[in-house]
Amino acid sequence: MKIKLASVYVDNQEKALRFYTGVLGFVKKTDISAGNYRWLTVVSPEEPDGAQLLLEPNNNPAAKPYQESIFNQGIPAAMFFVDDLQNEYWRLQNLGVKFTMAPMKTPGSTIVIFNDTCGNLIQLTQMD
Fold first, then answer.
1. In what order do the strands lie in the sheet with 37-43?
2. Measured by CB atoms within 10 angstroms of the end CB, which terminus of the chain is less buried, N or C?
C-alpha cells in the first residue's frame, strides 16, 4: 500500500497554484479541466514521481466549514518535511509568508506553522 495522492482544500485554485509553486517550490504535475471542475496537483521537485498534493476547491458544502474550523483551531491541514528548517523558515519569511508559530523544538523534531493564503495552516517539520 502506498500514498500517491493527498488533498488540501483551497479557496482559489489559481492562487493556490501560485503559492505552492512560486513560494513553496512545488511543481505542477497535473492540470485537467472537466467542465466546472479542475484536477490540479503539485509534487515535490525532489520526487517528481512521488506523492501528489491535490489543490482541491473548498466548494463542497462540507469542505469550507471543515477548512475554517481546523484553521481557527490552529490545526495544520498538511505537513511537509524539510532537511533544514531554519533556512527554509528564513527563505519563506523573506518571501512574505506569514508564520503563526516560529520554529519550535518538539520531541524528535523542530516545527513551524504558516498560513498558505488559501485558507490553511501548513506545518513544516525537520526530524532530528
1. 5-10, 52-57, 37-43, 27-34
2. N
